[in-house]
Design goal:
Helix content is 29%, strand content 26%. The chain is α/β, with parallel strands linked by helices and 439 residues long.
């Protein structure tokens, strides 16, 4: 484009100087030709720019870190005039997003389609766009850019690691009778029927029993007799640490051969915590357990424990937007929410905090007959000031399972090793069965 403008400028200058000095007709032709050529190029560029249309789409709008986003792009010249060149720039916020292209000579009524593949390396929400399309005239004088607004929104879930096993007590009284407790919610465990009272939901009415008895009867449900799993994620602003690191683009040959690269987590305690929480939720829901999530960022988020793929999707979508912007400590979160948990539940605390109030949170959980498990990130390896060695010792003295995680650790291995060290929950004196001998 710069060369074309220089050429036209030289022709125009030669025409002006020649017409003033010599007055020959050829110099006037140079002058008029340069002006007409400039006007023609300007009109051409704006005309073809109006006739450009662009579409982009993706079949999947939910993915995990490490997955490949595949987008389909379609550029169409709806006019009759050819376009010498078209540049497509993908301006989405996805790191190292594919989809930018340069086309030459797009004829009238012609379209160009192509596919862009992007390795997803960051969780969060990303708009698929905007997309900037630039066109130019045949002489390289002018260019016009149009920006097509973003359409769909992609949500990237955290990275999920394949955990082989994880410590989880089955209940307070292993091998003992199931503790029955009524539930106000609908659960898979129906216990019987009772008479209808005002306020009962219509979907709880058991119509066959109602027809047989001649009055409305509703179904009653019990809480899940198997211990719930609760994941408490520390999102306090002052708790997390991060080492500055520049994002690295996936090599081109890996993209070309669709060879899945090894994507490592950023050296951030928040990203490690979120990935650990997502991996644990995925593991326990695959085991058929009821899993809940508690997180205190700018807003308090509580997802009641459920067992379904839908619950996993809700947890992952919540974790995709977690930031370290909260003011409430993990100990404060435990103090406000632990009273609402059913006895015998396991509470997994994921935190980089090495402060003493974590011990208070653990003591609070044990007093309420809950089973705490601590996943403790070593903030010092992430650029933090303090080492959690003393806290780890204090937790182990309380017979609390603790998993120390350092920056760069293999998370599947670290999380799976705990189950071999803590086979059973500690048996307290009041839990020991008493045998009576006959005299």
């Amino acid at each position: 484009m710069k060369a074309g403008r220089i050429l036209i400028a030289l022709i125009f200058l030669a025409g002006v100087v020649g017409a003033l000095v010599n007055g020959a007709a050829i110099f006037s032709r140079f002058l008029y030709s340069s002006l007409l050529l400039t006007l023609f190029a300007w009109v051409w560029t704006r005309w073809v720019a109006r006739k450009i249309s662009f579409e982009r789409s993706s079949r999947a709008l939910r993915a995990n870190v490490g997955d490949v986003l595949e987008e389909n792009f379609k550029l169409t010249n709806r006019g009759r005039l050819p376009i010498p060149w078209v540049e497509v720039v993908n301006k989405t916020g996805i790191p190292f997003a594919a989809g930018s292209r340069l086309f030459t000579l797009v004829m009238g009524r012609q379209h160009r389609s192509y596919t862009g593949r992007t390795w997803l390396t960051r969780r969060g929400s990303f708009q698929l766009g905007p997309t900037q399309v630039s066109v130019g005239d045949p002489f390289g004088l002018f260019s016009v850019s149009r920006e097509f607004k973003p359409g769909d929104t992609l949500i990237v879930f955290p990275m999920i690691h394949d955990i082989r096993s994880f410590h989880s007590p089955q209940g307070m009284l292993t091998g003992g009778p199931v503790i029955r407790k009524k539930s106000p919610d609908i659960t898979p465990h129906a216990s019987g029927v009772r008479e209808y009272v005002p306020g009962d939901a219509m979907k709880r009415i058991h119509w066959q029993t109602s027809a047989r008895r001649g009055r409305l009867m509703v179904k009653e449900f019990e809480q899940d007799p198997q211990a719930e799993i609760w994941i408490y994620l520390d999102s306090q602003r002052t708790a997390h640490q991060q080492i500055a690191q520049k994002e690295v683009e996936v090599p081109f040959h890996s993209m070309l051969l669709m060879k899945r690269p090894k994507i490592e987590l950023p050296p951030s305690t928040l990203e490690y915590s979120v990935s650990i929480a997502a991996s644990l939720a995925h593991y326990f829901i695959r085991q058929g357990r009821a899993v809940g999530l508690a997180n205190a960022g700018q807003t308090l988020t509580i997802l009641p424990a459920e067992r379904s793929e839908r619950q996993e999707a809700k947890i992952l979508e919540t974790l995709a937007f977690v930031n370290s912007d909260g003011n409430l400590s993990l100990a404060g979160l435990v103090a406000t929410q632990s009273a609402l948990l059913p006895q015998g539940s396991s509470v997994i605390l994921v935190t980089p905090s090495a402060r003493a109030d974590l011990l208070q949170a653990v003591d609070e959980l044990q007093r309420r007959f809950l089973s705490p498990v601590v996943v403790l990130l070593d903030a010092k390896t992430f650029g933090g000031p303090a080492s959690p060695a003393e806290l780890i010792t204090a937790l182990r003295e309380r017979r609390v399972p603790v998993i120390p995680i350092a920056c760069g650790d293999d998370l599947p291995t670290a999380l799976s090793e705990l189950s071999s060290k803590f086979k059973h929950q500690e048996t307290r004196a009041w839990q020991t069965p008493v045998s009576y001998s006959s005299t």
